[in-house]
């Protein structure tokens, strides 16, 4: 089924060339079905690249998904034109009275800052708090996962001596779990971050469950016990070249980055990058949309007002 996006969004042409079914708002207006409504808070600098990555995953499911793009502020972006932002993005004031089936909060290049030092931290907290009453399930990615665990569960991250960048092997929980249906015992996922959460601290928290972790990269998939919040510490949405692009960018800026681990063939940056996470990324988002959004959300989103969808089903 298609993912519905605004007319003329640049990602449409890229996705259509990959045979990913997208539908314009104009065409979708004639569809007599109840699509899933997903809000994306895009905190990454290159908005169009991140839009395309996420829409690629959302478009690879059997559900029709309507996507709204949300920005954290209306200041000019260094990597995305103001015309694009004004045309396709909404401000929080325009959506906060609405309810959504799902919310995705992306990573952000803020890994070395304390949360309280982030210029828009108060706004991030406001959106996270709002989501707990207005969204069936929230998917936090990378930096957003750390931010969500800190704000909602008072868990603190640890800054690393150097950036953790690469593709790491993870082991899933042996316990049967809807989110892990179809997962192999071990799978790969990319990471690109300056901090990590202590796995033991997460496991000791009564409201959280670790579903997948890595000996090298730590906790990867963490789910709240009430199924509302899903924290993914890495970047399942990354395309094949993303880690390479980040590595070359850091080199150009004179940062002397380490070569991303287990990413280039023979760990040699002059050789081909190897993508080993696309199938897992698609499965993770498909399972989230199916089991934690579609299966739990009320048909009429107005039923969500003032109570959680789980309370409304009890």
TrEMBL record:
<feature type="active site" description="Acyl-thioester intermediate">
    <location>
        <position position="142"/>
    </location>
</feature>
<keyword id="KW-0486">Methionine biosynthesis</keyword>
<keyword id="KW-0028">Amino-acid biosynthesis</keyword>
<feature type="active site">
    <location>
        <position position="237"/>
    </location>
</feature>
<feature type="active site" description="Proton acceptor">
    <location>
        <position position="235"/>
    </location>
</feature>
<dbReference type="InterPro" id="IPR029062">
    <property type="entry name" value="Class_I_gatase-like"/>
</dbReference>
<feature type="site" description="Important for substrate specificity">
    <location>
        <position position="192"/>
    </location>
</feature>
<comment type="similarity">
    <text>Belongs to the MetA family.</text>
</comment>
<dbReference type="Pfam" id="PF04204">
    <property type="entry name" value="HTS"/>
</dbReference>
<dbReference type="InterPro" id="IPR005697">
    <property type="entry name" value="HST_MetA"/>
</dbReference>
<protein>
    <recommendedName>
        <fullName>Homoserine O-succinyltransferase</fullName>
        <ecNumber>2.3.1.46</ecNumber>
    </recommendedName>
</protein>
<feature type="site" description="Important for acyl-CoA specificity">
    <location>
        <position position="111"/>
    </location>
</feature>
<feature type="binding site">
    <location>
        <position position="249"/>
    </location>
    <ligand>
        <name>substrate</name>
    </ligand>
</feature>
<comment type="function">
    <text>Transfers a succinyl group from succinyl-CoA to L-homoserine, forming succinyl-L-homoserine.</text>
</comment>
<dbReference type="InterPro" id="IPR033752">
    <property type="entry name" value="MetA_family"/>
</dbReference>
<feature type="binding site">
    <location>
        <position position="192"/>
    </location>
    <ligand>
        <name>substrate</name>
    </ligand>
</feature>
<keyword id="KW-0012">Acyltransferase</keyword>
<feature type="binding site">
    <location>
        <position position="163"/>
    </location>
    <ligand>
        <name>substrate</name>
    </ligand>
</feature>
<keyword id="KW-0963">Cytoplasm</keyword>
<dbReference type="GO" id="GO:0008899">
    <property type="term" value="F:homoserine O-succinyltransferase activity"/>
</dbReference>
<keyword id="KW-0808">Transferase</keyword>
<comment type="pathway">
    <text>Amino-acid biosynthesis; L-methionine biosynthesis via de novo pathway; O-succinyl-L-homoserine from L-homoserine: step 1/1.</text>
</comment>
